[in-house]
Each structure stands twice: as C-alpha cells, then as structure tokens.
Write a structure and sequence with these properties.
There is one protein chain. This protein has 10 helices and 12 strands. Helix 6 (192-202) runs parallel beside helix 7. The chain has 2 domains: 4-217, Spore Coat Polysaccharide Biosynthesis Protein SpsA, Chain A (Alpha-Beta Complex), CATH 3.90.550.10; 226-283, no CATH class. It has helices at 17-25, 45-52, 67-77, 96-106, 170-176, 192-202, 226-244, 247-252, 254-271, 273-283; strands at residues 4-10, 32-39, 57-61, 82-87, 90-92, 111-120, 126-128, 131-133, 139-141, 156-158, 165-169, 206-217.
C-alpha cells in the first residue's frame, strides 16, 4: 500500500500535464500512487496520459464536475495515508515529496494539513504560502504577489493550505467528511479549500507551512472566465461563512462584514452577468 496518494486534476491540460507528471515521477521518494481525475477534457490530455504514463490511475469524467467533486473522486479512490492535491499546472522541485512527508510525520498528531511554498512560474514571486482568514472573514493567499526575499522562509502555523498544492492527513479527511464530500461539492470550485480548512480547525485540527518544499504554479490554466471566477469567489465565501460561522457569530460581525461586502455586492450586481442571472433565478417561481 502506498504511503502517499498524489491526486492531480485536469481540464484541457495538454500544455501543462506533462511537466507536472514528470516532476512527480522524478522525485527520489517513490512510495506513492498517482491518480489523475479529468473533468471532461476535449483536447489530447487523456490520450497523452494513457500513452506516456500508463502507471497513472485515470478517472475520466464526461463533463466538468468542478474541482471539489473531482478531488473527492480522487480521494475516494486513493489508498495512501497521506493525500497530496495538485493542480495540473504545478511543477514540483526535486525533493518535494520526501521533504513534505518527513515534515508531516515529524509534526504533532493534531496537524492534518500541510502547505509548501507555492511560487509563481517566474520563480521570483510567491503564489501562496497558505490561507489567511481575517476577522472580516476575508481570505488571502499569504505572500501572494510578493517577491521571495526570505520573509516567507519560516515554518509556522497557518489557517489552511491552498489546494493547488496541499498535503492532507487521511485520518483528518475521514473525520471531517460531510455528506457533500471531503471538499464540499456545492462550491464547484474556488473557496472549497477554505471551507475544508475551516471545518478541520473547528474539529481542532491544525495546519502548518513548510517553506523548504517548493513548487511552481501557473494559475488558472483552464482559462476560466474572470467574471465566473469572481462570481464563485463571492458566492462561495458566503457559503463558507454560513456553514462555519453560525448565525449568532455571523450577526455579531454583521456590520464589519457589511462594510466590505455591500460595496462589493453592488459592484457585482452592476458588472457581473452571472450574479444577475442567479438573482433572477432565485426570484422566479
């Protein structure tokens, strides 16, 4: 039985998947299985994987079910004690897998989530050093867009990992699983990693940042429209707050949340057709 299951999502990923898989298979640490979950690619992603990487376990969806459901499919099929989620446009540095597993095993039992240092593809700026959740329930990728000048080289606790490259303890995933999955499938994509980390924190699981493990992330390789991403980010933030905050705590912070969200909602109302469409649908009989 492999100790680690590497789960990679693809969606028309022909430009990126080869570099991603090559970076996984050249690792010194080899006690892993690789699972690719494809969300209905119509390019040559599937044929490339079948021909060049027959060792990969391939789960083929006929349509795009979203990142949350696809990751859940991979986790359900996984056999490892540890689960590494990767986007298809992530490339690992050598020693990544061994470093992450060693760090995870040496950490306290209560730590169930681990974040590497995710760099942008220019190898100069940071993509994410983990998720930060503010008092106003805004979430940020720590260090995003900042130059990697040594400020983000210290191991420490964070709120949760960015699922573009995140290591999870299987024991924790099973404990926090809901009827909507490990990752809540209602989110489709975006913020599902925030929700998972929040649920884990509520059950006293912790997350740690390990900067010595480095990978590189292109970002939005599936070319999802900016307006769609904007809508899902806004909607899913409220899904997450509603689930994890509770009504009493939510209303305690109502005016703090309103000061940020009301102007944002107005902006989306007038500029984002997806927001308008959902509002009309909600008001229809």
């Amino acid at each position: 039985m492999p100790k680690l299951s590497v789960i990679i999502l693809t969606y028309n990923s022909i430009k990126f998947i080869k570099s991603c898989l090559n970076s996984v298979f050249i690792q010194d640490y080899q006690d892993f299985e690789a699972i690719v979950v494809d969300n209905g690619s119509i390019d040559h992603t599937l044929s490339l994987i079948r021909e060049d990487y027959p060792i990969v376990r391939l789960i083929e969806n006929k349509m795009n079910f979203g990142a949350a459901k696809a990751r859940n499919q991979g986790i359900e099929a996984a056999k490892g004690d540890w689960v590494l989620t990767l986007d298809s446009d992530v490339v690992l540095e050598k020693g990544f897998l061994e470093g992450m597993i060693k760090f995870a095993k040496a950490s306290e039992e209560s730590v169930g989530m681990f974040q590497p240092k995710i760099m942008q593809v220019d190898k100069k700026k940071i993509y994410s050093c983990g998720i930060y959740l503010s008092k106003s329930r805004r979430f940020y990728d720590i260090g995003s867009g900042r130059f990697d000048n040594g400020k983000f080289d210290k191991t420490g606790y964070i709120f949760g990992p960015c699922s573009a490259a995140a290591l999870y303890k299987r024991q924790m995933l099973e404990e926090i699983k809901e009827n909507t999955g490990y990752f809540d499938e209602r989110f489709f994509f975006l913020v599902e990693d925030v929700d998972l980390a929040w649920r884990a924190q509520r059950k006293r699981w912790k997350a740690k940042f390990y900067p010595q493990a480095i990978c590189y992330h292109h970002g939005n390789s599936s070319n999802i429209d900016k307006k769609i991403r904007q809508y899902f980010c806004f909607r899913n933030r409220y899904y997450s707050i509603a689930k994890n905050e509770g009504l009493i705590n939510y209303f305690k912070k109502f005016f703090l949340l309103l000061s940020y969200d009301f102007p944002r909602l107005l902006y989306l109302f007038f500029t984002n057709k997806h927001t308008l469409k959902k509002i009309r649908k909600a008001g229809s009989p």
